[in-house]
Design a protein that fits this description.
380 residues; alpha/beta; TIM Barrel; 8-stranded parallel β-sheet; two-stranded antiparallel ribbon
Length: 380
């Protein structure tokens, strides 16, 4: 199977499965507990039908949108995700370059594998920083100042991960950072030698956003980082202080409850992202698409409402925009192409997704994102 044979999410996933050692593939692919929320994130779109208009004379379709003050050529962006150089040796550089080519936004995680400054200097497209709130308030201030100095446009605080989710696939394979593989997991690396060759012949794996503050090797694993260093007592007062200290565009990621969205607006956030971390945290949690209308109705006139988790098709994006989202974030939808083929893989995915959204909007009789409304939807 080659990249040219990939035409949708499932094709990219299959090519990534063939190229990645099993433990790394399942780290991307898996969710928490029984993975019911992981599945629901995508199947929730099936409960709503598109109701197209005809004879609208749609010629050119304008996909541009503005979120958090950032003008994007596409109504979807590449969400910040951790450990990208484990999936492909170019990691965030490949993702950022693809985002820049298509004029959309990309995110860098606190657990990213390329430095904020390096990415900001190399890629001229909107960049957000996904931040985790630590017990050490001095560390929080230092990391925010570093992002500000690097020229990051938007601070994105993730609040659905105050402790790590129960990801049983990783337990079975022994996936962790540093690796503590089971015998079966080690065998999977042995039968995918190209991954190991690339891993060993490119710059040493690191977590540059954290390296100066946390020693992630030795006894400190990713799991212990979440359980020992992040602050589960964080509250709305802490958020308000952080918003004020940042002083720029601020986004709260991981909101599902409309009351939380209201509080986010009250303390000065510019946007909320409905997300359940791709089904990787609280299994049984409501899917972002199912909760989207309620949050848009609650705060859509005060801040930008965005969603991620479960997006696999252009029609999913059209449904989310019709429900009131200003944009949607992609996660696995670009991680599988990244793992499959690096930057060309991410670019091919973005091109296919753009084509799907343009085609679907033409068929809906919509020439602009603003033309998509709930009048275009019917619940089954």
């Amino acid at each position: 199977m080659r990249l040219a044979q990939c035409h949708n999410f499932h094709d990219f996933r299959e090519l990534a499965r063939r190229r990645l050692p099993g433990p790394i593939f399942h780290y991307i692919d898996g969710g928490a507990d029984d993975e019911t929320t992981l599945r629901r994130n995508t199947t929730s779109f099936d409960s709503v039908d598109l109701l197209p208009h005809v004879l609208r004379g749609v010629d050119e379709v304008d996909l541009s949108t503005t979120i958090m003050g950032q003008k994007l050529a596409l109504p979807f962006y590449l969400s910040p995700t951790a450990l990208q150089r484990l999936f492909h040796h170019r990691g965030e550089h490949a993702v950022a370059a693809a985002a820049a080519k298509y004029g959309t936004m990309f995110g860098v995680s606190s657990l990213g594998t390329v430095a904020l400054e390096e990415l900001r200097a190399a890629h001229k497209t909107p960049q957000v920083y996904q931040f985790y709130f630590h017990k050490d308030r001095g560390l929080n201030r230092a990391m925010m100042q570093r992002a500000k100095d690097a020229g990051v446009e938007v601070m994105m605080l993730t609040v659905d991960s105050i402790t790590g989710g129960n990801r049983e696939r990783d337990k079975r394979t022994g996936f962790s950072i540093p690796f503590r593989l089971t015998l079966g997991g080690m065998l999977q690396f042995a039968i995918k030698p190209m991954w190991g060759i690339n891993y060993m012949t490119h710059p040493k794996f690191s977590l540059p956003q954290l390296d100066a503050h946390v020693k992630m090797g030795g006894a400190m694993s990713i799991g212990r980082y979440f359980t020992e260093m992040l602050d589960p007592t964080m509250n709305w007062d802490d958020l308000a202080e952080m918003v004020q200290e940042w002083g720029g565009k601020f986004c709260l990621k991981g909101v599902i409850h409309p009351d939380d969205a209201r509080r986010a607006a009250e303390v000065g956030c510019d946007a909320v992202i409905l997300s359940n971390h791709g089904g990787r945290q609280l299994d049984g949690a409501r899917s972002p698409f199912d909760g989207l209308a309620e949050v848009v109705d609650a705060v859509g006139d005060r801040l930008d409402v965005i969603m991620d988790s479960g997006i696999q098709r252009g029609s999913h994006i059209v449904k989310a925009l019709s429900m009131g989202a200003k944009a949607v974030g992609l996660g696995r939808a670009y991680l599988f192409p990244l793992a499959a083929a690096g930057q060309p893989g991410v670019e091919r995915m973005l091109g296919l997704m753009k084509d799907e959204v343009v085609r679907d909007m033409r068929l809906m009789g919509a020439a602009r994102v603003a033309d998509l409304t709930r009048e275009n939807l019917r619940f089954r």
